[in-house]
Amino acid sequence: MTDNWTLRRVSVLADDRATPLLHDVDAEFHAGQITLIIGANGAGKSTLLETIAGLRKPASGDIRLGGQALWLPKRRQPLNREALLRFGISMQQSESQWFASNVREEFVYSLKPYGAYDESEKDRKIHGALEAAGLAPDLLERDPWTLSGGQQRRLALACLLACEPDWLLLDEPTAGLDAGGRAILCELLRTYRSQGRGVIVVTHDLDTFLPLADDVLVVEGGIVRAATTNERTMRESPRDMALRLTNSKQDGNTARQTEIHNRKVIQETGAAAGNQCTRPAWQRPHTFDPRAVVLAYLLMSTILLLQDSLLQLTLSAIVVAAAVAPFWPLFRHWLPVIRGYAILSAVLILIGGLSFEPFSLEWGRVETTAIRLLQLMFVMVLGMPILGLMTPLRLQRALDQTFGWLSKLKVPVGSLTLLVTLIFRFIPLLMREWGRFGKLARARGKETTASGGIPVKRIHRMLMPYLRAMLRLAEEMSGALEARGFDRPRGNPVYGFKLKPGRADAWLLAAAIGCCSILYFIGGLL
Fold this sequence. Notes:
Elements: E1 5-13, E2 20-29, E3 34-38, H1 45-52, E4 60-65, E5 68-69, H2 81-84, E6 87-90, H3 103-111, H4 119-133, H5 149-162, E7 167-171, H6 179-194, E8 198-202, H7 206-209, E9 215-220, E10 223-226, H8 231-235, H9 238-245, H10 252-268, H11 290-305, H12 310-324, H13 328-331, H14 335-352, E11 354-356, E12 359-361, H15 363-383, H16 392-403, H17 413-445, H18 456-483, H19 503-525
Parallel strand pairs: 3-8, 3-9, 6-7, 7-8
Antiparallel strand pairs: 1-2, 1-4, 4-5, 9-10, 11-12
């Protein structure tokens, strides 16, 4: 019999380390059973599944598969590889993000963490998984991106089955499947259960899965509670059970108790009651006029580029650190980028300082290279919080209001402002997609690095599918813009609102001028 999963007082925080996503989860998932995780959109269902799979590191608590801890503290590679190899996870949209050029190579990629197999053993596992998922063997040489949505969903499941894990963790597995695909999936899950293995399913498709379920967990606002199925619940229709389990039929007293409990959870996690997601005014995207933000950035960037000695750049580092400190929540997720740039800079400085006739390290060259690279790094760091201080719409409105008069001179201001806005909108999208591909690479490659980390040896496999995904998103965005008429000439624009500089903008510019003054006068004395 396969071991059970146990979670004890597991809490998970969002990337800003302030917003709770899951709070004090106590749950057990039994082998030989099918457990459903249900709840409203955004309740935390997928977060719970990813936490079980080691794709999100808990802020506190313990996760175990039998006697094996999933997380090993004080280790360079903190995830327990033995535990990772005992389950497979299929995430939302995993059916459209592939790493290989054909279906056979996708199977090989999934099987690789499980050790060396001879070709006959690989073929046996691959063909068995294809048959179980209802896919034809002639698909093996096809590019997975050319398969239909339903075929890709089945392929994602087949890649898990080929590895023969003890547990299947499935997130919305019926999305994109027709009735035949659902029937095959249900039969497969019954077989898995009969073999003493376990299945955890995150789903909204209660009509399909409730007749199979042995246990049901309900997630509400990051709080998880069990609702074990019994004779009474099995007589209910899927819709009635869903309504009951998600408290849609609560009386007033029960609803009030739930609200009080949720507020207590928020207070215990250090966030203000009813206001846990808010930030100080200067960190919100609607506080500053984008024109003030850009002007402050240009002023400080100019003075930073004028610093031409290591002593002056030391002072610059202090000033930049003080300038970005108030915007730390908007800045912290860029730390891996800064670390990568610092490592690359150190290598370039070393190479730039080498002299081969005779072989030596010349300090003059080292200093010159270091100054140029540090200038660029400080300018880059200073600009990193900017994306969080304005929305693309406010940026577009600022550009339209500032340069709209040029349209009378036949300058395509509208097209240019739209281009700038799309660039700003696309940068967070690029980061979000990279993070999603990173999760897929860790889930399928069974990497033992901390969540968020991707070994360098795996990056080359991600680049091509990542570029494909971004091109697909760009094509979808192009179609959406065309459908909204952006490819046709427009008359005079009608604005829903206009930007007006305020007191916050004056303070921001005053702070920028103060920093520039410090760098100009004190830097000149160094």
